[in-house]
Amino acid sequence: MKILVVEDERLLSESLCELLASHGFEAEPVYDGEAGLEYAMTGVYDLIMLDVMLPGMDGFALARRLRGRHVGTPILMLTARSGLDDRVEGLNSGADYYLAKPFDTRELMACINAILRRQGAQVDELRFGDTALDLPSAALVRGELSSRLSAREFEMARCLFAAGERIISKQTLLVKVWGWESDAVENHVEVYVGFLRKKLASIGSNVKIKSVRSLGYHLEVDGGD
């Protein structure tokens, strides 16, 4: 399962990501509210861990923006602001749970597991148009036709199918697919988008990957206009 950690204190963020990794989660850090919003909007995360005091956009505003855009990913707020009014505002902003700092790591993991249990069965596919991205087999499926994907093609497809009609930037795809430390450039994104377009065409999918100049990519159903 993938968890987005939105925390501007780098040492704490690193500690949280290491803790989550030790419990089998895939954690990704971002360090300000604007980046947190962009990443959370991709829809690829199972949980968002969100600090309140963030540069650019605070956690309350970020949560409200996500809920206003119908992003249902559960949110766990972590903050030193432990007053009653702050907890009420956090929950009213859309958080599923509000945990005050400092906290015991056992309590944190218990909160995470409780929130994830409430989400029910894990989603096994992402669907758009007449095509599904089957997550266990890493394949594009339309009816009885399917096309297996490489690891990077799969991560690219997962980002695009989760975002659907929402535009996802090349920079976001670079970080999501290749990682923060990679030397990959935007041309790599273009190449893999090309691979996915061919595989969608090979199964007769009506899903098209549309490029929006200077912004990024989104999915569209052919003839859906």
The outline comes out as: elongated
- Total strand count, please? 11
Low-confidence stretches: none
The average pLDDT value, as a whole number, equals 87
Task: Classify the secondary structure makeup into a structural class.
Answer: alpha/beta
Residues in β-strands, percent: 15-25%
Distance between the ends: 35 Å
Q: What's the number of helices?
A: 8
* CA-based gyration radius: 18 Å
Order of helices and strands: EHEHEHEHEHEEEEHHHEE
Largest sheet, spatial ordering of strands: 2-1-3-4-5
Description:
The chain has 225 residues and is α/β, with parallel strands linked by helices. The protein is 42% helix and 23% strand. The chain has 8 helices and 11 strands. It has helices spanning 10-22, 33-40, 59-68, 84-93, 105-118, 151-163, 170-178, 186-202; strands spanning 2-6, 26-30, 47-51, 75-79, 97-100, 125-128, 131-134, 139-142, 145-148, 207-212, 216-221. The mean pLDDT is 87. The modification 4-aspartylphosphate is found at residue 51. One of its GO terms (cellular component) is protein-DNA complex. This is Stage 0 sporulation protein A homolog. Residues 123-221 bind DNA.
Sum up the structure in keywords.
alpha/beta, 23% strand, single chain, 42% helix, 5-stranded parallel sheet, 4-stranded antiparallel sheet, 225 residues
